[in-house]
Amino acid sequence: MSQYTQQPQFPQAPTPAAQARNGLGTAALILGIIGALSGLVPFLFWLAGILGVIALVMGLAGRGRAKRGGATNKGVALTGAILGLVSLILSVVGAVILFKAVDDAVKDLDKATSSSSAGTESSDGSAKGKNKGKNSGKGAGTSGDSGADSQTLEAGDSAVYDDKLTLTMSAPAAYTPGEYSIGHTKGNKAYKVTLVIDNAGKEKFDAALVTTEARAGEEGVKAEQIFDDKVGEVFTGTVMPGKKATVVYAFDTPADAKNLVVEVSPDFSHDASQWELKL
Question: Coiled-coil segments, which residues (predicted)?
Answer without folding.
Answer: none
